[in-house]
Amino acid sequence: MIYSPHEYQDYAKKFIIDHPEAAILLECGMGKTVITLTAIQELINDYFEVKRVLIIAPLRVGLSSWPSEIAKWDHLKNLKYSVAIGSTAKRLAALNDKAAQVVIINRENVDWLISHNKWDFDMVVVDELSSFKNHRSKRFKALMSVRPHVKRIVGLTGTPASNGLMDLWAEVKLLDMGKRLGRFIGGYRDRFFLPDKRNQQIVFSYKPLPEAESKIYSLISDITISMKLSDYIAMPECIMAERMVTMNSHERKKYDTLRDEMFIQLQDKEIDAVSAAALSNKLLQMANGFVYASDKEAVHIHDRKLDALEDLIEAANGKPVLVAFWFKDDIERIRSRFPAREIKTTKDIADWNTGSIQIGLIHPASAGHGLNLQQGGSVLIWFGLTWSLELYQQTNARLYRQGQKSTVVIEHIIAENTIDEDVMAALRRKDKTQAALIESVKARIGG
């Protein structure tokens, strides 16, 4: 296929070529993969700037999206690549393929690659830079150990600060080795944050100082560009809606008891939340209509969300519906009522996009990256919510992306006066911070 780039795609490609350290913050569906591959192709074959490139990607994206994009476009047909994903033998074979100008690996194997193999890459592309936000992780430490030997590095993501501005330090250090936000996380905290929640000397969270956001954005603006799909491509409307459900007094009492006492006995089974995180999970389960007991068995609480889901499916008037679930028993309960099919494999994706699946089920953790589902439908229903802004936005972008022709409707089934409302509020707060970052470094093409 002949590649006819949009103006913004040419701009982003040139930014990568002109900046040895580049953070490219593009919304899903804007073609970040072909943009980056085009820049790589030119840097190798036209500018002779690099010889071998390592692309670090989520597992499914590394297996399918990057190779398929190379195969898709005529101008990339001479770009030689290998995929270092799978068994040790497969990974070693890919690394030892001397003809491969590009090696694609999943992020889980970065530590293995650097610890057990000779480093011979002069350019690195990190697809989903936000997956390196934890400076204590093995993958971050491993990549930082070879960072001085990397001539060029590109970080790609649409969600750079999904949990707040603290995430940015590790991501930016990976790019510039500490030149802009400091070499140490402690110094970054001291410069831009104040202790927020604490217990005497133990600080649990931090909040930005006044004007910290603008100062941080200014410091990284020279190596960062951001682009929103709606700014460059005419997109259909995206409607966000909430469908509230209410538990009856009996169901409510169970929820309130577990919330207040962190323990309840139901149907001769003990439900025990041993920590705040465990309590959060169990309250989310109860909001969805069940809860896992200590023996891992699911105890039924209510069917309020299933009833609401049935109403929403009926209201779709025969249109295919995508349903996001979180817990294993969510999918079992949905399947017990509806002829639904989980979208996991390449065939599932193809069947959805050809209209062969009426009700598709996706889990945000496995469907957050790399799935193009916009051809098969335009209705997404969140049956169970996630605290992760990154997974939330990426899942929404499976339908609301370039190529979508219809108005997209994203419904959230919310259990009234439960943790569901807290999750939605948290997602809105996080999005506000991230939106400010995106806006501050937005590319100004032709202006």
What does this structure look like?
This protein has 447 residues and is of the alpha/beta class. It folds into 2 domains: 7-232, Tandem AAA-ATPase domain (Rossmann fold, 3-Layer(aba) Sandwich); 238-435, P-loop containing nucleotide triphosphate hydrolases (Rossmann fold), CATH 3.40.50. Helix content is 41%, strand content 20%. It is built from 18 helices and 21 strands. It has helices at residues 7-18, 32-45, 59-72, 88-95, 110-116, 138-146, 168-176, 185-192, 212-220, 229-232, 249-261, 276-288, 304-315, 328-337, 346-353, 364-367, 389-396, 419-440, and strands at 21-26, 53-57, 81-83, 102-106, 123-127, 152-157, 193-195, 198-199, 202-203, 206-208, 224-227, 238-245, 263-266, 269-272, 290-292, 298-300, 321-324, 341-342, 359-362, 379-382, 408-415. It has a 7-stranded parallel beta sheet, sandwiched between helices. Strand 15 (290-292) and strand 16 (298-300) form a beta hairpin. Helix 1 packs across helix 2 and helix 5 crosses helix 6. The chain is globular, with a radius of gyration of 23 Å. The two termini are 31 Å apart.
